[in-house]
Amino acid sequence: MNQRFLVLDSFRGIAAICVVIFHMHIIGSFTELKFFKGSSLFVEFFFVLSGFVLAHTYGFKEISFKKFIISRTFRLYPLHFFMLIVVIVLESLKLIASKYGFIFNTTPFTNTFDVKEIIPNLLFLQAWLPFTNSTSWNSPSWSLSVEYYMYIIFFFTLFIKSNFKYIIWFLFSFLSFFMIINSFGIMNEIVRGLSCFFSGALTYLIYKKFNMKFEKISSKYFSLLEILLIILIIYIISYIEEYKAIYASLTFLLIVFFFAFEKGFLSIILKVSFFQLFGKLSYSIYLTHFAIIYCYHSIALILEKILNENFRHKVENVMYHDFGNSFINNFVVLFILFIVFLISMFTYKYIEVKGQEFGKKFTNK
Question: Which of 191, 205, 237, 355 is most buried (CB neighbours < 10 A)?
Answer without folding.
Answer: 237
